[in-house]
Amino acid sequence: MSEELLAEEEAVRQLAARASTLWERLAGDFVPEEGPESARLASERLGKWRDKAAGGDAQLFQKRLDWLGTSPQQVQALLGEVRLKGALPAWTQTFRRAMAARRTAGQGRHPSTFPFSELLIPFAEAAKGLLIPECRAVFTPEAFDSLVEDLIHELSYVAAPSLLAEFTGFRSRQGGGAEPTSRRLYEAFTAQQLDEGLWRFFSGYPVLARLLSRTTEQWAFNVCELARAVKADQRELQRVFAGGAPQGRIASIQPSLSDRHHGGRTVARVTFEGGVQLFYKPRGLGIEDAWYRLLEDLNARGGDFHLLRVLHRGDRGWVEPAFHASCTQVQEAKQFYVRAGMLLGILYVLEASDCFFENIIAAGAFPVLIDTETLMHHVPQRSQDGVSAEELAQDIVFNSVFRSGFLPSWDVGPRGERVDISGLGATAGQVTAYLRRQWRHVNTDAMALEHVPIRVETEDHLPHLGGASLRAFDHAGEIIEGFSMMYRLLRKHREELARPESPLVRLSTQEIRFIFHASRIYGLLLKRLGAPNHMKAGVERSIETDILSRFYVESREKSRYWPLLQAELEAIEQLDIPCFRARADSHALTLPTGKVLPEAFKESGSERVWRKLASLDEADLELQVRFIHAALGMVSSSQEQAPAARLRREAASWEGGPLPREEFAAEASSIAAVLQERAIFAPDGGATWIAPQLLPHAGHHQLRPLRMDLYDGLGGIALFYAALEHVSGQGRRMALAALSSLRRFVVTGPPRRVAQEGYTLGAATGVGSFLYVLCRSSALLGEPALLEDATRAAGLITPEGIEADAQFDVMSGVAGALLGLLALHQATGAVEALEKAKLCGEHLLKHQLPCEP
């Protein structure tokens, strides 16, 4: 071996060592280096890992290390500098091929608008060398070029931020102006990199070298896999989708239409030379096939669903696309919403989830579910079933029509952004709380990267009429009509649907996806890991990734699922969104590693479906219809610009005189009876309700279990019943039942929990209201024990919390806390309450603003 090759070999070994993940080091593939710098790095990284994985908690961090079978002392040495013990990892061979191709790849052979595409062509050339000969026979040149372009796009997404960091330094050193019309500096930079600079660049970003090489290998493997699938499935494709007519090669392809799973595999849309268009999915489509057979069966019983043809081929499958089309008349639009209600009825019974707008297509008058992976979705085990009224109410909402994600619903971001991503409610133009990259002046001297909010951009899930999209809240009657019809149809035929030959039984044996953490959590982590500082040391990137372990070490429920963590980490390390699958009728979960969790689920997805099917009755139908009304009504009310002004006008138009006291008392008793009828009672005597709740900072309501404050929560209902008891002797039991959750909260909740759960310090929406409700209820009910709870609630108001308040007002700020504390002092004479009230007053005086005379 020549000296040049020996030097290259050593450089690659060093690159592999710096790129190595924490998990590779723990597996014994690397040997720690000695020396003070390595020891310093190791100690620093151990502290970072403890912070990321356990929030700095030594006990929780030890729990994390126990799962890995190691200790802080054992692992620390592996966190410093290391050297490779044995053979080079496989990805380094692909990397060396790419480096060898950098001079011959040639700029401009793959015209592209992706950032730094010229510097990524060597990896595309290396990828072509990994393909099997059959690939060229399956794709037309145009289709193959689309695949290569997709690879360069993927590589650019991974590499561009780090390359921009280097280009920014190069641009600064040149001292020239960054003009968007000039490419002089950009071309000089790329030429330098293609000469010898890429070696130097990757020595500074070794993780990036590994990721680009692995992405290249995955692309080649997946292209070969698709080519083999086309060749093996050719006759069946012709039979199922083309009436037996030959279809030839793939003439065009749109790859990367889904999240990456299992080694970069994604959904692709292909068009054959014969004209047939299909979606190729790199997983078995047994669930899709069974779903459309079920819809076909329901159509024969009175349903009305659009059917898609599916070819299930074991580990892969093909399905025809659903095309968005407008309705041509008003009647079709009404039929769409009747069918949407019918679809909601099936989704409710089948325990579906994730039926958001991306997974629905409005094909004229038909809503079509295009992703059925989460039908019969399993539910993770909990340490115990819900026992409090609040937990029971949460279970009712979770197991209702809301679970599917099909009905309008709001998510609220950290800055109050509200967005509806539901299958029936999402509208284009909504700004989400998430950011995406936006490149400016791509591949010019002025190239720059910005991060802009992601917007909902499509309305293909909504019906259109006359060039405009329609809104579900205008068609509540049709939705409820369709839902009620399908609900009763399923109830009527439930015995037939449970027979062995039923398509529902077939569906219940299929493999489905189990979503443990939302894909957006993984996506946010991957975006953060794309920053240049996470491309410099593999072990530090792994430490950043291990923030996922906090979900497990901090949660008793999730601790039982900790084996999923390693599979999540391994997927993230190769840029995948983790994906878990299980049979719908199984209690077991098989991980991608082959490890089986035998009792992952207390109840299988199919068992939940059979139980729900057996429990269908008119009372449940009435409840679900109320939920649908509420969901659509809350969306409708959000469109009203000034409801308060409308109410003032109605009050001003009242022409009657004052009402007698008895009429008020009778109406209060009537309200109390309705509330009691709709209460959710727990075995411990507590009660709560499900009602519209104001989402913090969003100015919008959502149906959920009541919170505990006075303004729109249990505190207000408890005070109402306490007052009713005081005047009529009819409210004691319900007042104490409504106070149950609040009393438990003030006993067990540390001060930090107040902010975590969205409570303020105020007298309407926060701790001030807790104090007021408990003190007044104590007086109205003659219950001294409530004052003890009020004293505990005062402990939730801390000097630090008072100092941090920026609301100031009675509703949500320290002015409200002050009033609550004074109520407690008045009732008990507590000196501490008075002292805290003084702190509130001083805080208000400190921040007062002068007023004009």
Strand order of the largest sheet: 3-4-5-7-6
The shape is globular
Which spans of ≥5 residues are poorly predicted at pLDDT below 50? Answer: none
- The DSSP helix count reads 34
Distance between the termini: 90 Å
Strand content: 5-15%
Q: What would you report as the Rg, rounded to the nearest angstrom?
A: 31 Å
The strand count comes to 23
Structural class: alpha+beta
Largest sheet: 5 strands, antiparallel
The chain-level mean pLDDT equals 92
Helix content: 40-55%
Explain this structure.
The longest helix has 36 residues, at 206-241. Among the domains are: 3-217, no CATH class; 286-426 and 461-514, no CATH class; 664-846, no CATH class. Helix 6 crosses helix 7, helix 6 crosses helix 11 (206-241) and helix 30 (767-781) runs antiparallel to helix 31. The chain has a 5-stranded antiparallel β-sheet, with helices on both faces. A two-stranded antiparallel sheet has the order 1-2. The radius of gyration is 31 Å and the shape is globular. It has 853 residues and is α+β, with helices and mostly antiparallel strands. The mean pLDDT is 92. It is 52% helix and 10% strand. InterPro entries: 6hp_glycosidase-like_sf, LANC-like, Lant_dehyd, Lanti_2_LanM. This is Lantibiotic biosynthesis protein dehydration domain-containing protein.
What are the main properties of this structure?
single chain; 853 residues; alpha+beta; 5-stranded antiparallel β-sheet; two-stranded antiparallel sheet; Lanti_2_LanM; LANC-like
